[in-house]
Amino acid sequence: MLDLATATRDYARSIDAGTFAATRDRDLAPWFEAMGPEIWAWQYARRLTDQAAWRARPGADERRERTVAHLDMTKDIETWERALARLDAIAARAQALGDRRPDPIALPSEVRAAIEERRRAALERVARRHAREGGSGGPAPVPAEVRPVPPPPGPTLTAGSPRSLTKVHP
After folding, report:
1. What is the pLDDT of residue 164?
2. Greatest Cα-to-Cα distance within the chain, rounded to the nearest angstrom
3. Cβ(31)–Cβ(10) under 8 Å?
4. What is the pLDDT of residues 7-43, one digit of tens each?
5. Of 144, 143, 114, whose CA–CA distance to 129 is shortest?
6. Contact 53, 13 (CB under 8 A)
7. In sequence order, what are the residues at sequence separation of 6 or more whose Cβ sits closer than 8 angstroms to the Cβ of residue 169?
8. Percent of the chain residues topping a pLDDT of 70
9. Cβ pair 104, 149 in contact under 8 A
10. What's the pTM value of the predicted model, to 2 decimals?
11. If you average pLDDT over residues 104-110, what whole number do you get?
């Protein structure tokens, strides 16, 4: 099995070279296995938001690198929210064109909870503002960033296929 640094390096090289979309499942499997489902999903979110792939430091303690990745991915809620919005746009375009919808992104449970908390707080701010402005008649406006996000159908973080968590079909 590949180590984390090698897997993230090879993954990043394929993204940078523009060859990831053509990579065969059997070639993705070792990267997926080395990264694990949460880092793999985070790489997908970073790719959806046009960010550079995350790379583990070569020669560093792998447990520390995984901890660093986990801390970074759970703090970077904006990336996850932008990735979800981008995925929604890609899915809407695919549906309009009759193309295959992209695979959903598997959100780690901590990230899902943080997104739900941010949306709840946004709704509370809107409600307070509406009450302050003497909100008479009609429902309170709902901010655009507060769309309910049901759990994605299909793959979960324990899904076995790396392809099911990676491909983005524009």
Report:
1. 47
2. 63
3. yes
4. 999 999 999 999 999 999 999 999 999 999 999 999 9
5. 143
6. no
7. 90, 94, 99, 100, 101, 102
8. 79
9. no
10. 0.75
11. 92
How far is 64 from 149, CA to CA, in rounded Å? 31
Contact, 31 vs 2, CB < 8 A?
yes
Q: Are 71 and 136 in contact (CB under 8 A)?
A: no
Q: Which residue has the tokens 């949306």?
A: 119
Measure the CA–CA gap between 105 and 103, rounded to whole angstroms.
Answer: 7
- The answer for residues whose C-beta is within 8 angstroms of residue 73's C-beta and 6 or more apart is 38, 39, 42, 108, 111
pLDDT confidence of residue 153: 53
Which pLDDT score is estimated for 132?
81
Among 28, 29, 42, residue whose Cα is nearest residue 108: 42
The torsion angles phi and psi of 144, rounded to 5 degrees, stand at -60, -30
Rounded CA-CA distance 6/27 in Å is: 13
